[in-house]
From TrEMBL:
This is Methyltransferase type 12. It comes from Haliscomenobacter hydrossis (strain ATCC 27775 / DSM 1100 / LMG 10767 / O). PANTHER family: METHYLTRANSFERASE TYPE 11 (PTHR43861:SF6), TRANS-ACONITATE 2-METHYLTRANSFERASE-RELATED (PTHR43861). InterPro entries: SAM-dependent_MTases_sf. CDD domains: AdoMet_MTases (cd02440). It holds the Pfam family Methyltransf_23.
């Protein structure tokens, strides 16, 4: 299999990198991967990741819920219940941040957020790399969902007042290209929302190699608030706010306990750990398990 090995930081180019953790793909392949830290910009990245043409098989599983839409098993049923809550939560956030009604959802998965926002009167367009998920959104909801090649080539139509990336930036091989294109697509007074896991969170520190939000090798990059903010500024944005995602610490902790082999204890232990992580970030969004960064053009 063709893999990518980094001799220097893929984000800032620093050679001051070292191995931080050894972990594995807990959900699909069971393969081992190393995580490396850059002491220059603070990025943590997955080493020896599959090349883009090889990564598809690591998404082809019912365990990858955002693409498969399965409801099998307790964790997946909890995911669906949480998703319904988060759709309303995201809607409220969008409406609080912008009065504009044209929305681009990058990495839209099976299209539930797009469909929800269309029901609220928004003109929506989606981008999704997975063909199965893309076709689900098109066939199930009648959505306009494009391939990421259109985004990367700069050929998506028009500009957008709202652009969202819910747990997507950590998946893309060239985050700077994506942010450059989104800067071009965003209206002058528009808002970009980027949600990514935060490996410096309480649950990230606790679970270490078993932390579910590392999700290797699908997650190529692992951001701290320092790194994400620096990257955004480099690409012409200003970070105007941060907000924790309230359900993420519970879901991630539950999965992490499962990966630790806790069996029937995974649910109560995960709930307790998630609560502690949630409480630690109530007034400090930079400590949240996952952070929504709210960006505008600088």
């Amino acid at each position: 299999m063709s893999t990518i090995h980094y001799q220097q930081c893929p984000l800032c180019g620093s050679h001051d990198i070292e191995k931080a953790l050894a972990t594995r793909d807990h959900s699909i392949s069971g393969e081992a991967f190393d995580l490396c830290d850059c002491h220059g910009c603070g990025l943590r990245f997955t080493q020896n990741v599959p090349a883009p043409e090889q990564i598809g098989r690591y998404y082809q599983s019912e365990n990858y819920i955002s693409h498969s839409d399965t409801k099998k098993g307790l964790i997946n049923r909890l995911y669906h219940a949480a998703r319904d809550y988060m759709l309303r939560n995201k809607q409220q956030l969008v409406q609080n941040l912008s009065k504009q009604r044209r929305l681009l959802d990058v990495g839209c998965g099976t299209g539930y957020f797009m469909n929800h926002m269309r029901g609220q009167g928004y003109e929506v367009l989606g981008v999704e790399v997975d063909e199965g998920a893309r076709n689900f959104g098109i066939q199930q909801f009648g959505l306009d969902v494009r391939s990421p090649t259109e985004l990367e080539a700069g050929t998506l139509p028009g500009k957008f007042g709202v652009i969202s990336m819910w747990h997507v930036l950590e998946h893309v091989y060239d985050p700077k290209l994506y942010l450059r294109r989104l800067h071009e697509l965003l209206e002058a007074d528009g808002v970009l929302m980027i949600a990514v896991p935060n490996y410096t969170s309480k649950d990230g520190q606790k679970y270490a190699a078993h932390w579910a939000a590392y999700d290797v090798p699908r997650h190529l990059w692992h951001f701290s608030p320092r790194t994400l903010c620096s990257l955004a500024e480099e690409m012409g944005f200003q970070v105007v706010g941060k907000k924790g995602m309230p359900l993420d610490p519970f879901y991630v902790s539950l999965l992490s306990e499962k990966y630790r082999g806790r069996g029937m204890l995974a649910l109560p232990l995960g709930a307790w750990s998630g609560l502690r992580s949630f409480l630690s970030s109530l007034n400090r969004p930079e400590k949240a398990s996952s952070i929504i960064y709210i960006l505008k053009k600088a």
